[in-house]
Design goal:
The complex is a heterotrimer of chains A (about 210), B (about 550) and C (about 350). Chain A is an alpha/beta fold and about 210 residues long. Chain A contains 8 helices and 4 strands, in the order αααβαβαβαβαα. The termini of chain A are far apart. Chain B has about 550 residues and is of the alpha+beta class. Chain B is built from 19 helices and 16 strands. Chain B has a 4-stranded mixed beta sheet. Chain B has a 3-stranded antiparallel beta sheet with strand order 9-10-11. In chain B, α8 runs antiparallel to α18 and α10 runs antiparallel to α15. Chain B starts with 15 loop residues before the first helix and ends with a helix. With about 350 residues, chain C is mainly α. Chain C is about 70% helix and about 0% strand. Classes of the chains: A alpha/beta (about 210), B alpha+beta (about 550), C mainly alpha (about 350). At the A-B interface, α4 and α5 of A face α5 and α9 of B.
């Protein structure tokens, strides 16, 4: 039988577990803050082990997501089973399924409603690039056009194993973050007041309209 | 088009001269590749002029008891005008009829509505309006159904510049609170009125588009009176991928891939329907082995789908444990699928003229193990959920759908059968190996949510018995007929239906003899089920919306296509 | 016999403190110590309960539950806590900011105060006075104000419907709780938790002493208590499938965390009350006639008895939660007003008769 050959993604990339560890090692090569680093590690440990997904599914991949939550694959082993229905309480949005032009603003709004830190996993061909529907007039060619994506899980739909692998890659990615010091530093924004006024005006105009 | 006809107020629906001449499309002289005898699924289209359409429809409905509007398809015949194909069936006599009507006016096409005869025509005609811009006079609610309200153009027209006019819009979509009603007046002019969808002071709650229990991205605007539902206005199209339009630029083997993604819990059946439609149109006879394999696969898929239906219903009603029990059993079917087809959900198994690969050597053994396992576990479902007094209280007498309503709304599948309507395509028009097996059509008369669940659970048992009859008697033969490298279907209009997991799944194929279809329309199993939600839910409580939505059993990607 | 009175510790501490500082300072220090203890206990029990819930539910559903974080997933909930603490709290435009931020604190305060009423051991009780049960009922109904405020101030239709349902449900079921408590007060003749426990240690558990009416009261209490905690099959206010997350839809970060904590602690408090009033609190199991057995039982410390009984009741409630589907709002209310209230009234009369004729043990 003829074996289908994957042209675009080399198999090695599916087995890449070390890149993120390497990044951390490089970042800390010059030494890390003695107080901040352990605290950062602690918080990253907490965050990476408690990624609560938003129940968001548009099509086929959603059924596979349900299968991942069910007994055989049991996403609960990683502590991800607490699926939240309200975006405010979710940490990661698993975009499982095709995103159409009509759905795009809704997805964007859902993403905006989520509280920081928030992550996006694009699941399946449709959300990565439009998949089999790339040529359609009503399908977004990849959700990365509208929201930033952290991890891509290819497949149509991906197998539950790849779901879990994608989530584990996200965990690795979360562990690279800094909570204290860099990303969370409060910066004085010179335009803050100005922007605020403009925003309020804009919002009021929208509401009137 | 004559310039004088362009104003809205004075348009005459398709001038009589035009109506007299449209060329009949279906019984065209056979193309060179066509077989001598007409294909068995070729539609013999009666052409009816738009002015005479409503009277003719009324006659068919009242006198010939054509009470089931099976399919209503919009068409664009380019120079020959825009039109609609109607498929009617009588649930009493079983007689079937196809009609066709054409208007040559491309700027402002108008056709009479048949909403007053069949309730389901409401949403079908809205779909045609959305895709082709054909307006229906006498339709109470002429709004777009899938596209955003600010969408420019009509995407299914052959001359539409869809992509150019409609870049990705990231602003929130506008949702109008009123709708257009067109009435045809005695002097032939058309009057346009506005009508409010909700009354003043209605407390409108949006259920969806992102909501845990709408089974996908579906948006209900629900007007509440306390906790009681007054009216539901479904907003569709959040997963409309334009599959039908895409098909027009794909070759026949390519179109197959998209059927699996319509109703992903009826992947086998949908693909079976399209393959069968093309095979019959080309006059290809598949081997008995293929027929039996397809039957077994369809039934496995049906069990898979019904288990998922049960699981999701449990989940929606808060019985999370039963949900996981269902998934535990479903994995067994997926294992069987995976061995033979290589996929779990999207299977890509049927091909034109056969199936993709022969059965796996383990197939029979696995299926034989599965049958008693499933029979045993069904009892567990009754123990943990179906027999529970809380569930009885929540489901019995909730969301009653009468037989007349079910027929008028075209609710096929388990939902229709729970209301006492014998609509099983496997019995009505046997295909594949269904004429060789013994099985009962499960029908109940209550029409409530409880009956809808029981029908599905009983159907699992029937499916198991069908598989049991076939599994030891798979005939030898080739699993794939020899097909030409480029598949061309002879010109004509063809319709084939199979019993999908949740109702009649039909394929309407119009071919001009090319290597890709001229128009490929799927009769969605879910669209009538969504259309019926307003009727079934009004008067019930908000919490019942979940029960009813769960038991009516629609799959949104199949609704939106 | 292991009859340890926790009063010895508290009195020793008091004497120690008054030795080095004036009376008022000593009392202040003690209050702070007690408050710290209670907050720690509160957090610890919440973590234990959440872990237990996830494991118990996994066991019912043929799954494993948390496994990867720590041995057998024991550190899972700590991870959740760290995440929750560092998660953004979203402030919404067009909401009543003050009420919106106040609501979770109300809920948590109510549940912490009721938590303080639990008798952990002989003499180990933080709030204890002669109308203890009355105080408990009054404080526990404060939580519903927090829920109503949350629903109202969120400016969200789901939240509002969830909060209204919750209000209707909790206020209704409070009636049954009050009625069953009244039934048991008939039997005990006191409203003080410490006395109720002491009485049961001396004369046997109330559920045995009051036999039939006590058992009926226990069952009604479990049903009504479950409804008070907003847990399935009565989890309508947050009813995931209809109202996304009910009254706390708009809360994020630690504000949501407070609701999450309070939900589990209310479960514990509900179970703790059941074990105090019906199952003897910290009193060991005594079977008349089996002296050897009683000796062994008496060697187990009271706190272990209390926590053990409470977790047994918690398990019962979890079992219910993961087995039954959810009721509908009108069915919940008719269950209460048409069945439970009349039944508990009759039960009260029955108990009064039992007491009057001295039919109890």
């Amino acid at each position: 039988m003829k074996r289908p050959k994957i042209k675009s993604i080399p198999y090695e990339e599916f087995k890449d577990n070390e890149t993120f560890e390497k990044i951390v090692a490089e970042l800390n090569a010059g030494g890390a803050h003695v107080l901040v680093k352990p605290l950062d590690d602690l918080i990253n440990w907490g965050r990476s082990n408690s990624l609560w997904p938003l129940t968001f599914a548009t099509s086929c991949c959603g059924i596979e997501f349900m299968a991942v939550c069910a007994a055989r694959y049991d996403i609960a082993r990683f502590g991800f089973e607490v699926t939240r229905n309200s975006p405010r309480q979710a940490d990661v949005i698993l975009v499982s399924g095709t995103i159409t032009n009509k759905m795009a603003p809704v997805l964007k709004r859902l993403y905006d409603q989520m509280a920081d830190p928030k992550y996006v996993v694009a699941i399946g061909g449709c959300s990565i690039s439009g998949g089999p529907f790339t040529k359609s007039y009503h399908v977004v060619k990849g959700v990365d056009q509208i929201i930033p994506v952290d991890v891509y899980v290819p497949g149509c739909p991906p197998r539950p194993e790849s779901f879990l692998y994608g989530m584990m890659q996200l965990q690795r990615k979360v562990k690279v973050e800094n909570f204290f010091g860099t990303t969370n530093r409060k910066q004085k924004d010179p335009y803050k007041e100005e922007m605020k006024e403009q925003n309020v005006e804009l919002l009021n105009q929208q509401e009137e309209a | 088009m004559d310039n004088e006809k362009l104003t809205t107020e004075s348009v005459k629906p398709a001038a009589p001269t035009a109506a007299a001449t449209p060329r009949p499309v279906a019984p065209k002289p056979a193309a060179p590749a066509a077989p001598a005898v007409p294909a068995e699924n070729l539609c013999e289209l009666q052409v009816v002029a738009p002015e005479a359409l409503h009277a003719e429809m009324k006659r068919l409905h009242d006198e010939e008891q054509m009470d089931f509007l099976e399919c209503l398809t919009g068409m664009d015949w380019e120079a020959d005008g825009l039109g609609v194909i109607y498929h009617l069936e009588s649930t009493v006599t079983g007689k079937r009829v196809c009609l066709k009507t054409v208007t040559t006016d491309r700027e402002n096409p108008l056709l009479p509505s048949v909403t007053d005869l069949w309730d389901v025509a409401n949403i079908y005609e809205r779909e045609v309006f959305d895709f082709y811009g054909i307006k229906f006079t006498g339709h109470p609610d002429m709004r777009r159904v899938f596209m955003r309200e600010d969408w420019v153009g009509y995407p299914f027209r052959k001359d539409d510049e869809t992509e150019k006019n409609n870049p990705l819009r990231m602003d929130n979509e506008p949702l109008a609170d009123d709708t257009e009603v067109l009435t045809l007046q005695a002097d032939g002019t058309v009057k346009s009125n506005r009508r409010e969808i909700f009354e003043d002071g209605d407390y409108v709650v949006n259920i969806g588009p992102q909501h845990p229990s709408t089974h996908g991205v579906l948006h209900f605007r629900v007007a509440l009176e306390g906790e009681r539902i007054k009216k539901i206005d479904p907003v569709l199209g959040y997963i409309h991928r334009g599959i039908e339009k895409m098909n027009e630029s794909l070759t026949y083997p390519q179109t197959l891939a998209l059927t699996d993604r319509l109703d992903y819990l009826g992947a086998m059946q949908s693909r079976h329907a399209l393959c069968m439609c093309i095979e019959k149109a080309m006059g290809v006879e598949v081997s008995d082995r293929v027929k039996v394999i397809r039957t077994i696969m369809d039934e496995l898929q049906r069990i898979d789908s019904h288990i998922l239906f049960f699981s999701c219903l449990c989940q929606d009603l808060g019985a999370t444990t039963a949900f996981l029990y269902g998934f535990r059993d479903r994995e067994k079917i997926l294992d069987i699928f995976e061995e033979t087809c290589g996929g779990r959900l999207i299977l890509n198994y049927n091909t034109i003229g056969g199936v993709m690969a022969d059965l796996h050597p383990n197939f029979q053994k696995r299926v034989k193990e599965f049958i008693p396992y499933m029979r045993r576990n069904i009892k567990e479902y009754y123990d943990i959920f179906v027999g529970n007094v809380i569930f009885h209280n929540r489901a019995k007498g909730v969301g009653v759908l009468t037989k007349e309503q079910a027929i008028s709304f075209g609710c096929t599948g388990g939902t229709g059968r729970a209301s006492g309507w014998h609509n099983d395509v496997r019995k009505r028009m046997p295909y594949a190996a269904y004429d060789k097996v013994q099985f009962n059509e499960v029908v109940r008369t209550e029409g409530d949510s409880y009956a809808r669940l029981l029908v599905r659970l009983d159907e699992i048992m029937e499916s198991l018995s069908i598989i049991e009859q076939l599994i030891d008697n798979i005939p030898e033969g080739s699993f794939q007929e020899k097909m030409k490298p480029i598949i061309k279907v002879p010109a004509g209009t063809y319709y084939t239906a199979v019993e999908g997991s949740r109702g009649e799944f039909g394929v309407l194929l119009e071919s001009k003899g090319d290597k890709s279809p001229y128009r490929l329309h799927y009769r969605s199993t879910g669209l009538p089920l969504v259309a019926v939600m307003d009727t079934v839910c009004s008067g019930n409580m908000l919490a019942d919306l979940i029960t009813i939505g769960g038991t009516v059993d629609y799959i949104v990607p199949d609704v939106d296509r | 016999m292991f009859d340890f009175d926790f009063k010895i510790v508290t009195e020793w501490l008091h004497a120690l403190l008054t030795g080095v500082m004036p009376e008022w300072a000593a009392i202040l220090t003690e209050s702070i110590l007690v408050a710290l203890a209670i907050i720690t206990l509160y957090a610890v029990f919440a973590i234990v309960l959440i872990y237990m819930e996830r494991k118990v539910c996994a066991a019912f559903q043929c799954r494993l539950g948390p496994m990867r974080v720590g041995p057998w997933g024991t550190l899972q909930v700590f991870g959740d806590v760290f995440k929750m603490l560092t998660k953004e709290i979203i402030n919404l435009r067009k909401t009543d900011m003050f009420l919106h931020n106040l609501a979770p604190f109300l809920v948590v305060t109510a549940s912490m105060t009721t938590f303080a009423c639990l008798p952990w051991n002989k003499g180990a009780q933080i709030i204890d006075f002669n109308v203890g049960i009355f105080f408990f009922l009054a404080i526990s109904s404060l939580g519903v104000v927090g829920i109503l405020l949350a629903g109202w101030s969120s400016n969200n239709k789901y939240s509002l419907i969830g909060a209204m349902r919750s209000g209707a449900q909790i206020i209704s079921y409070e009636l049954s709780i009050g009625m069953t408590m009244l039934t048991m007060i008939c039997l005990t003749g006191t409203m003080s938790f410490s006395e109720i426990c002491a009485q049961q240690a001396a004369e046997g558990w109330n559920i045995f002493r009051g036999h039939i009416p006590a058992v009926i009261a226990f069952v009604i209490y479990l049903i009504a208590g479950n409804a008070e905690c907003n847990r399935g099959p009565f989890d309508l206010p947050e009813c995931e499938s209809e109202l996304t997350a009910g009254y706390h839809t708009e809360y994020s970060g630690m504000h949501f965390g407070y609701y999450y904590l309070a939900e589990y602690l209310n479960l514990f408090i509900c179970a703790g009350m059941a074990s105090t009033i019906f199952l003897g609190g910290w009193a060991p199991l005594v079977i008349p006639g089996l002296e050897g057995f009683n000796e062994v039982m008496a060697c187990i410390p009271g706190a272990v008895w209390f926590v053990g009984k409470t977790f047994f009741v918690v398990f019962l409630l979890m079992w219910l939660r993961w087995t039954f589907p959810r009721l509908r709002i009108d069915q919940i209310l008719s269950l209460e007003w048409k069945y439970l209230v009349p039944l508990s009234m009759i039960n009260l009369v029955l108990m009064a008769l039992v007491i009057a004729y001295g039919l109890h043990f």
